[in-house]
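Memo to structure team: turn this sequence into structure tokens by end of day. - J.P.
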Amino acid sequence: MPGPRPAALAASTDSGYHARMNEQRITSRRRVLKAGSIAFAGNEIACTVRNLSETGAALEVVTPLFIPDRFALVVSSEQLNRQCHIVWRREKRIGIAFD
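Reply from structure team:
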């Protein structure tokens, strides 16, 4: 008979775990698929905005290398040009919070 699952494994397999993680957000994010630009020091790097809220966004990039910790996110279709900072980086995605 198998023993009890370690707490970390139980949390990662718990179907309610992801719902609880989303509850920590200040505002809900809406899924989008918009072209954007990461603008800094006269440079621009193309990105895709995957979700967006009043307080931040998740961006998909070709590579997170060479992207500074602070930059302006520009999304022309949303008339958005906001200063922001990176909260997390994972493979080809970065999470940002607006300043």
